[in-house]
Specification:
Blueprint (H helix, E strand, L loop, with lengths): L1 H18 L3 H4 L5 H12 L6 E5 L5 H9 L4 E5 L3 H10 L6 E4 L2 E2 L4 E7 L18 E8 L1 H6 L9 E5 L5 H6 L10 E7 L10 H10 L2 E12 L2 E11 L2
Parallel strand pairs: 1-2, 1-7, 2-3, 4-6, 7-8
Antiparallel strand pairs: 5-6, 8-10, 9-10
Length: 239
């Protein structure tokens, strides 16, 4: 069951979180997983002017980003109606934060979106083993459109984060021009098929390499019976 696997992985991340000195941030309600990944970027000496957060959920990544990169302009995309309100509330006093209630993908229009009891696994795709709570249409656009129309002011050093439950390649296909501006990509990819029609790690990796990126660091791993099933990977644009 995917929910059990998520909880086990969060336990492992919790150990790392406190190891990395995250206790004072835990008291503020910061996500273990997001903080761990971003802290590792900070330890690499990285800093960002623009952070594009695709698959924002309740703002876990955005809030951790603000803690570790206080000057960055953050743009968060989240199509789930029920958690978008929580996202905006979490970041409501942040003048350098913009929340967008939509999905990013390969074109502009609308797309069916599946909502589950655990909002962390909400996806455009249907889960292979978890009951769907609700399905509804959500607005979708491309990252290329968002940047070219100036709805995102992509300046300086740019981090693109993708956590879209198997829809990663479709988001990237709508970002061909944008990727030329992006310096680093933090992406969650899967080696196990959690959703119908989802794209696996190998295809995503091949696409990014063909678009001028290389793997810089594996930030986190999710296991199932000692098999790696998901990875959080940092990609870097070739210099």
């Amino acid at each position: 069951d995917i929910n059990r696997k998520i909880m086990l992985n969060l336990l492992i991340k919790g150990i790392k979180f406190f190891k990395f000195g995250g206790f004072k941030y835990y008291l503020k309600g910061i996500s273990l997983a997001s903080y761990n990944n971003l802290y590792q970027l900070k330890k690499l000496g990285l800093n960002f002017d623009t952070i594009i957060d695709v698959g924002a959920n309740r703002g876990q990544f955005a809030y951790s980003s603000r803690t570790l990169f206080p000057e960055a302009k953050i743009y968060s995309f989240e199509p789930t109606k029920s958690v978008f309100t929580e996202l905006t509330k979490k970041m409501e006093n942040d003048e350098n934060f913009t929340a967008l209630n939509m999905a990013l993908g390969y074109n502009e229009g609308e797309i069916d979106f599946s909502e589950y009891e655990n909002s962390l696994i909400n996806s455009v795709y249907k889960s292979v083993d978890t009951e769907i709570k609700n399905v509804y249409k959500v607005k979708m656009n491309t990252l290329d459109n968002m940047i070219s129309s100036k709805q995102i002011n992509a300046v300086g050093k740019i981090l693109l984060k993708l956590d879209v439950q198997g829809f990663e390649l479709e988001v990237l296909k709508g970002s061909n021009e944008s990727l030329k501006l992006v310096d680093y990509i933090l992406i969650e990819v899967s080696t196990k098929k959690y959703y119908e029609n989802m794209i696996m790690y190998g295809e995503v990796d091949e696409f990014l390499i063909s678009n001028g990126f290389i793997q810089n660091k594996i930030l986190d791993l999710m296991f199932d019976n000692l098999e790696i099933t998901q990875l959080d990977i940092l990609y870097k644009r070739k210099s």
